[in-house]
Amino acid sequence: MSSRPHPTTKQLLDQFSTEPDYSDPSPDEFEALSRDKVPVRSLAAEDLHAVVRIDRHGTGTDRIDYYRRKFEEALGDSGVRVSLVAEQDDMVVGFIMARVDYGEFGRAATSAVIDTIGVDPGMTGREVGRALISQLLANLASLRVESVRTEIEWNHFSLARFLERCGFRPGQKLALSRALA
After folding, report:
1. Is 152 helix (H, G, I), strand (E, B) or coil?
2. Taking a C-beta distance cutoff of 8 angstroms, is the pair 123, 82 a contact?
3. Which of 6, 17, 111, 127, by CA, is between 20 and 30 Å from 92?
4. What residue segments make up the domains of the chain, in order of their start?
5. Strands across the sheet with 40-42, in order?
6. pLDDT grade, residue 23 (50/70/90)?
7. Which residue(s) pair with 116 in the sheet?
8. What's the predicted TM-score (pTM) here?
9. CATH superfamily of 28-165
């Protein structure tokens, strides 16, 4: 007789299972599908006030006129809608506004630009931003978009770290600007 305990069915299944668990929310794996935990859907016109509310928390200013223009562009002008919102308990808790460019500055490559991303301060650390980026990248890949870019304030360190964890790196372009007096 053996004194070793018999393995449970779960232990046997775990030992011989080769199917990966893509819903694993491992904190250091961007490929873990955060969007499995946080529902993400396409931006809709009725999301305007929720987006403005979230943005106001982050910026301290009410930019409703800016967002009205962005919503018109995202929902009306563009042929491909890629802007998204994240929800919890039927409430918008995050958003990402992006657009697809089919070439610029003499390049014919398809790329996307992330204009704005925001997460409700009460949802910080709950994978909302990851879910938004993950879903956006999946949607863009299905559209055969070749790259995604964004610009951030040079001293917005927390956003830079977040984007780095999502796989973003400094690009090879130098953006130049000049103030007009």
Report:
1. coil
2. no
3. 111
4. 28-165
5. 40-42, 84-88, 91-101, 111-119, 147-150
6. very low
7. 97
8. 0.75
9. Gcn5-related N-acetyltransferase (GNAT) (3.40.630.30)
